[in-house]
Amino acid sequence: IKQFSAQLITELCKRFDPKYPEMKQTFILVLETALQDSNSLILTKYGAIRALTSLDDMVITQLVIPKLQRFKECLLEHKSVEDKAGLSLCFQTLIEGIGKGLQGLLQYDEKEAMTRYEEVKAILGDQINMFGPLISLPNQKIDD
Question: What is the dihedral of CA 14, 20, 25, 29, to 10 degrees?
Fold first, then answer.
């Protein structure tokens, strides 16, 4: 249901953004709040990550990456055994979404994409090693 909800938010934003540009900002604010709320369940945070990383490359490069350290801290608050699988899913989804956003950025600004990649790598290095490289360049993988 979290994936469906994320897809629905993305579709609503794509379809109605020209007529209701404030709608996307409202969704982003609600999702960001859910992600940073220490009372939110890990699967709620997963849904917020799924939706944020589904919106577009600009959301990833201008919101998710700059706030990545805070988002990571919020996720790591979940230390119970029951949350372990959800936490892994959150990081995997976050890394996949960021990778998609960086791939998009790479198409029109390679230098900025590499700068953002280094920021992400500094914050999520251990998690990236677990889930694979964020982005690939032709004839080259970007990872350690």
Answer: -100
**Cβ neighbours of residue 35 closer than 8 Å, sequence gap 6 or more:** 45, 48, 49, 52, 71, 74
Identify whether the C-beta of residue 113 lies closer than 8 Å to the C-beta of residue 105.
yes
Q: What is the DSSP string of the chain?
A: -HHHHHHHHHHHHHHHTTT-HHHHHHHHHHHHHHHH-TTS-HHHHHHHHHHHHHH-HHHIIIIITTTHHHHHHHHHT--SGGGHHHHHHHHHHHHHHHHHHHHHHHHH-HHHHHHHHHHHHHHHHHHHHHH--SEEETTEEE--
Section 79-94 average pLDDT: 90
The alpha carbon of 21 is separated from its chain's Cα centroid by a whole number of angstroms, namely: 21
* Rounded Cα–Cα distance for residues 32 and 21 (Å): 18
pLDDT tier at 87, thresholds 50, 70, 90: very high
